User: Fold this.
Amino acid sequence: MKVKTLSRSSDVYLPARNSEVSRLPRNLDPELHPFERAREYTRALNATKLERLFAAPFVGQLGNGHIDGVYCLAKNTRQLNLAASGSGDGVIKYWDLSSRDEIASFTAHRGIVKGLAVTVEGNLLSCGMDNTVKLWDITKKDQSDSPAKTFLGSSGFTGIDHHRSNPVFVTSSNAVQLWDENRSKPTANLSWGADNVNTVKFNQTEQSIIASAGSDRSIVIHDMRSNAPVQKLVTLMRTNAMCWNPIEAFNFAAANEDHKIYLYDMRNLTRSLNVYKDHVSAVMDVDFSPTGQELVTGSYDRTIRIYRVNEGHSRDIYHTKRMQRIFCVRFTMDTQYIMSGSDDGNVRLWRANAAARSNIKSARERSKLEYDAALKERYKNMPEIRRISRHRHLPKPIKVASETKKIELASIKRKEDNMRRRSKKGTMPYPREREKQIIGVAIKQAENKD
Amino acid sequence: MSEDDIEDDNDDDENATPSYTGASDTEGSVHPTTTTFSDTESLPSESEVDDDDDDAMKTLQLAVEKASQKIEEEPIKIKKRKKLGLPTHSAPTVDYDEDIVAPAKKKVTLDDIRAHTLSSFGARSLDRLDELEKRSKGKSEVVKSRLGRRLEARIDRAAAYEIAKDEVGKWEDTVKRNRRAEHLEFPLQQSGGAATADITGVVDVGGELDGENLVRGLENREFSLEEVVARRNEMRRMRELMFREEMRAKRLKKIKSKTYRKIHKRERERAQEIAAQLEGEADDADADEDDYERLVKRARERMELRHKNTSNWARDVKRMNLHKTKGTRDELEAMLQRGEDLTRKIEGDDDDISDDELPHGNDDEEVSEEASGIMGMKFMREAEERQRKQNQEAIDELRRMEGGGGGDEDIEVTDSVVNIINQGRRRYAPGAQNSKEAAEESVEQSVEAEDMATPLERKMASIVVKDTGRPALAARTQRTKDGDPGKEAHSNSNSSKSNPWIQNVEPASVAKNASVLSLSKESTRDAKAEAKLKRSRRKAKKAVQAGNTEVAIDVNQILQVRDVHDDDGEADSTNVADSQVLMVYNGGRRARPTEIQQRELVKRAFAGDDVVRDFQEEKKRTVEGEADKEVDVTLPGWGSWTGKGIRKLQKNFIVKVEGINPKNRQDSKLKNVIINEKAAKKSAKYTAGVVPFPYETREQYERSLRIPIGKEWSTQSTVQRLTKPKVIVKPGVVVEPLSAPFPT
Assistant:
């Protein structure tokens, strides 16, 4: 007798080849999947917890670091794994990021190296307080003999940046000077006013535009085409560093001495587009992620913070016990990592996303991660998830400083409110948060064209 | 700090000495670093002043101080800044900006100073000053030119800034697009140039190129001589015709006669009509396009009401006896005809008038009308078809019964009565004539049956009859007069399966809704749902209307009535109570002893059940329980000890526990509601405290959370779409900054 049983062919549910993923039949009947909201919330919560669990931002330091503090960093914008750092004793080191070893190390300047830039060919330009700019051929094994080229200036250089596609670079000293790689003298002087310029930056998208920040608390926009400064902004406090947004040609971020970073539109400098708060000391450096979606900042308070461009507070804060004042930070060109140079002489490598890992993932793992990210995004405003995702252990001095700062600001506000209450109505308007820091601009808009 | 200050402050592009401390001094209190700036700024000025000028400077300063003291006493007012700036007049190159900033202001000149320094002390220094002034006057031209250069530079900068802004502004579209993009895949430019595709310059250039190609292609083509000539002649002819037409139009435009216009208008219309007809016949493909226009036209017709003889024009025609004349009469007739047509159209929308009943039915119109509205939909048409089939069957059945004389009469009787009563407005169905006799007979039978029927049935019938406000007999006579009892017959015949529900007994609305109400088990679900909805609405309305009649128990009357019909004759014994309940419901106008009995019965049945009072008590308890409370926390015996030197303890062991003020309760004004005022602590964990940023209302935010993302709830593609990250970076690739597609 033949017994009939329920059966189905294995062809239906087994993959034809080993390489194929077996397809799980799914039933989308909502009756079978109740409590969707509650389940997804729980998943989001778990994902958030796991994210914090896996958060390990610090990858490691590069080589053995420098002997003196690291005051400038440069990344090779055409190759992912190359970077250079310059220290206070005049030594420049060239790093291989994938192995975290140094490729080359040489004394470049007498005194501090103030700026580094990478040329179009991948060579290194350095400037120092010894009135020289030097061009280094990185491909050579031994750099000790001499640089490929030396440019002499009249005073110590404080910053340097290279044009994205032309053999042109710009330096800041007591003036903003434009140089050609093939000439020994500067081709143009773009300075306007300030007797000491801290930093200078080329726009990477609109390539002929340069921004510089002077010690007279000014930010000046220069245009290479007209060989002249075009606009000037004076703020309450000094700007330490600047960076242009790589995908938004007219926006740049300026790291200010007043613990904040400001995002400006160069077409209208009478107000900032955004103010990034949270640091408790002067911000020393700022760099955009190559996607233009995030900012990394290094501060004198010994922390690195990462901001989303359209938010006002940091999404993450990095610190270690041994890390001292941070003078330079850079995103790597693949947006995955962050380099930082600090007073303690180490160059550190961090993950841009603390919980992310860059190993190759299976499709399933990737889709799971994407699903988790979507859930976290969706439920991020739920109190518990919010609390867990924001929770960070901070070093005590920073915690204390931030609390003190909060109190200070509150008291200032209270005082102002009292004054406002007692003064004639309308005489003390509320200052706008995004315009507070601005004292004035040189060229005011006659008419707004937009 | 004003704009000028910034300019002046920093505009030492040449080696001009910033001899006043400008902003740094005035702003000095703002920031500690500013003091260092002022130092550095003053340094070069000191170094640059010549040694031999040094003495002069000192004496000059003294003199100036003196002078300024006196000046201050006098009404001449000078700003502090200017005072500080004054010594720099000694330097030959200095030009400072009194001319620019305040050209109208009175300057302090040497003569002023001299006038105020009477002592011999300043004599030598004044001589010196004279010398200086001469020198400075000698070089005044240089000063002039420098002023010009500064202004020039400033204007240049402004212009350069404008240009730079414009250049950078070219990125605006790209930036906006990237910001708005749902997903950004980096590196941007390799992924098909999404970011740069919309730069207008590129697009324009592309367009031009295309045009050029086209022109070139045309140029390359060769024409024969004949072709060229023929084409030229054709063109000439067309031009000529156009010109003539134009001239004619001009001439016609000048004609002012009204009759001419009227005639021509009519002509034009007629021509159009004919053309439309021809078109309609010839070519149905364009019908769709014309449909809209036709609809608009018809709507206009409806709005105008030109087709009724109530219009001013029509009345005038009648009043003036103009309708005697042939033309106007025709017109009037045409108008009325159109009016009639339209009404027929409208009727046709509502009633399903069969074709054979319409004497001069316009077939085309009929078709178009049928196809419109909900009746035109497929399911409705199918339903109609089904209905028609059923009707046919029923009629056949009736005929058969007529012939064979078989069948259960009781069913016929009750149903016919009910259905007749429910009919209200009469409807005409196909095959009406055939079933006429049958229907009549069935009615007669029902009348007969009334006499023999059980009291319940009588009651039912009487109630029903009364409620419809149309006596059954009258209805019958009317019907026979009409001679079209088809619909009745139809519903009647249908009755063996039909389910006439409660509407049949509901009085006021029956007449209105009768046409739709004969629902059977076979009728479509939609129809049933519709009927149900209507029923509930009607009920609600009636409940409001009949406020005076008290509904003792809410019984499902639908079921009861159906039972009456379904149980045929046997219903009399079992359903007495139900019918009485019904009567209670319908009552208010006719209180019968049974009704009173019923009330009594209900009262007795729920004798101990005072729901209302219980509820009120419960509410009171809740309100009191949640209100402010004073709790006595006295410990028995505490403080009651005795002995020497014991102070009397203050006995305040009453603790006040704050609660919710009864007046502030949400249900304080709602009589029949208790609202729980306790905060739900458990759910607090799952609720966002405030509406988060991009959302504006709570509903918006909740909507964003409603649809689950996971793969248990949606298909693979949806899940992928929902979980796709906003920014995707290709791993292991340099993400280059955007580069311009246009030359910079």
